Amino acid sequence: MTAGWQKLGLVFSPSGHGWMRSHAQNPFPESLGHGKYRVHFAARDAQNRARGGWFDFDIRDPGRVLAVSAEPTLELGDLGAFDDCGVMPNSIVQRDGRRFMYYTGWSKAVEVPFSFHIGLAVSDDGGLSYVRASRAPVLGRNHHDPFITGAPYVLVEGDMFKMWYISATKWERESEAAKPKHYYTVKYAESHDGVTWTCSDHLCLDYRPDEYAIARPVVRRDAAGYEMWFTYRGGADTYRVGTASSRDGVHWVRADEPLGVDVSADGWDQEMICYAHPLVWAGRHYALYNGNAYGATGIGLAILEP
Question: Closest Cα partner for 212 from 184, 180, 174?
């Protein structure tokens, strides 16, 4: 078998009705033990409003879905709240027996198409149900992030919560008739309680020429330091997945080449590869990822062959 990433195909597709009419976007796994995983994602209804859901599968038999959430993990926010048009889970961490689910809350805007900010929901029953920590964002607009914040990926190290998230640096109209275009990249914040965050103007990743979107950071740490997977696009290109490394989690060196899971010649991932998340089991490296239309058709799986 050829070395490199080998695609194993779609492992989950949205039901096609109700709150899961389309999309299974931004997958991230929770280990259930013995090779079984719960994969969280964001689905969309007929009005294009996102809610979180999950499915269970066994990495040894990835083509078989074991269970699917019957209801969303978190409903839309109250009318007029920052998350009344969409709730996209991005990461879950545990501390003192509680589960903290960080998510992106969406709302509509006037001069720009949308607004989104970072919310938090907490579970005290092992993830069976989640309750908002607040009806307001835990990281919304501030002096360092004046436009949008989202896609929070959180790790807990000792007594510190560490978050990598996206923040817009500007909106721009390329012509009078054009829809405003957002420019956003990855930033870093810290917290001692997971609720109150300290952030700065520092950009973890800077734009390359023609780039305008660096999205959905996923970070893991090992003895050598930190590794980040992220999704990017620029010019006329659609999304691809890149990687970066860091010794301290704040200052990053971007790899010259993309991850290596590329678009197919045809099918559900022929146009884009996006929102990839690593998964390691029994010494084997896997990637959960989305394809065309930001995950409209579901979640794929790839394996790294030595």
Answer: 184
Q: Which residues pair with 140 in a beta bridge?
A: none
Q: Which residues of the chain have pLDDT under 50?
A: 1
Which pLDDT value is given to residue 2?
55
54 closest CA partner among 66, 43, 39: 39
Q: Which residue has the tokens 């695609």?
A: 7
Instruction: Using the Cα atoms of residue 59, residue 285, residue 98 and residue 91 in order, give the sign of their dihedral.
Output: negative
| 277 within 8 A of 284, measured Cβ to Cβ | no
C-alpha 214/C-alpha 241 separation (Å) is 9
Pairwise CA distance, residues 226 & 237, whole Å: 27
CATH node for 4-305: 2.115.10.20
Structure tokens, 16: 């096609």
What distance lies between CA 305 and its chain's CA centroid? 25
Q: How far apart are CA 163 and CA 168, in angstroms?
A: 16
Cβ–Cβ < 8 Å for 27, 62:
no
- At 234 the pLDDT is 84
According to DSSP, residue 57 is labeled E
Surface-to-core class of residue 126, CB atoms within 10 Å of its CB (0-12 exposed, 13-18 middle, 19+ buried): exposed
Question: How many CA atoms, within 13 angstroms, populate the side-chain half-sphere of residue 107?
Answer: 21
pLDDT confidence of residue 61: 97
> How many Cβ atoms are within 10 Å of 44's Cβ, its own excluded?
22
232: its two tokens: 């990017």
Residue 1: the pLDDT is 44
Residue boundaries of the structural domains of the chain: 4-305
Q: What is the pTM of this model?
A: 0.96
